[in-house]
Amino acid sequence: MPLLPMSVTPADLLEAEKIIEGHAHRTPVLTSSQANQLTGAQIYFKCENFQRMGAFKFRGAYNAISHLTAEQKQRGVVAFSSGNHAQAMALAGKELGVSVTIVMPHDAPAAKLAATRGYGAEVIIYNRQTEDREAIAAKLADERGLSVIPPFNHPHVIAGQGTSALELFREVGELDYLFVCTGGGGLLSGCALAAHHMAPDCVVYGVEPEAGNDVQQSLRNGERVSIPVPATIADGAQTQCVGELTFPIIRNYVKDILTISDQQLCNQMRFFMERMKMVVEPTGCLAASAVMQGNLPLKGKRVGVIISGGNVDAVSYADFIRRAEALL
Ligand SMILES: *Cc1c(COP(=O)(O)O)cnc(C)c1O
Prior knowledge:
Blueprint: H1 10-20, E1 29-30, H2 33-39, E2 42-47, H3 57-66, H4 70-75, E3 77-80, H5 84-96, E4 100-105, H6 110-118, E5 122-126, H7 133-144, E6 147-148, H8 155-172, E7 177-181, H9 186-198, E8 203-209, H10 214-221, H11 246-253, E9 256-260, H12 262-276, H13 286-293, E10 302-307, H14 314-323
Parallel strand pairs: 2-10, 3-4, 3-6, 4-5, 7-8, 7-10, 8-9
Antiparallel strand pairs: 1-2
Enzyme class: lyase
Organism: Enterobacillus tribolii
InterPro entries: TrpB-like_PALP, TrpB-like_PALP_sf
């Protein structure tokens, strides 16, 4: 298949790596002898659950805001998100002295509203049933001259997210496989570019929830497929359609997309809790679940896994753990 035109290059990732250095954490790469025993593989977990604000999204947000002109920074930025992108933008804006407006639904969890405001962002509430958040953001952008920074479909966001895999390859060297979760595909496309640059023989798989396999369908149909909002506990991967910019990169550099059930995500959360003493949010468990519960032939292989985030409220976490079965 000929390469499709792409909006992001490895040079953009290397630039992003320099920009975020000293601002984003260089997150740890952890191993687990129990995970290795279970799979027969040598697994390297890149732990973005330990990233600032608890997920890889700080990387893309910081890189994107940094690229604005002085005048754009002066005016401020706007984003629409009820999840990790909101907190990432709020924190990155605070660090860079740029005012941040976030459009959030009226029924967003109180903890997320508080966290976003806590980082100093202005929160504008909209009604999910009757109003369109993109239209609200566009109107704010228009009226106040704000720059819109979307959660995944943006070259500087994609490049920023890809620095997580770049760091993984720098630390552990070549890998046979890399597994990355996907919602809109910002993280997956960035990491696939990093793999292509650092270890061209590494086979990259994306992983998404069984209930919301839009990227899998898109890849198999050869064009972007839209689905209704999927019912899954993986709230970071409830996107309805892969991005216009992320899709060509995924088509060029990702082997296939695998899917995982909510039950498997709960099992994986329990494994991380019991065996590795880590809190990982459901979406953050997708890639690891594919490796540890997917029955793939990984014996003797060197396998990278991106753990994307760790933001989950305590009451939901307790519920997920209660539903989980032990993996070993
Ligand atoms: C946003 C998010 C994802 C999905 O990222 P995309 O770039 O939209 O594919 C996965 N995990 C976590 C924890 C997230 O916050």
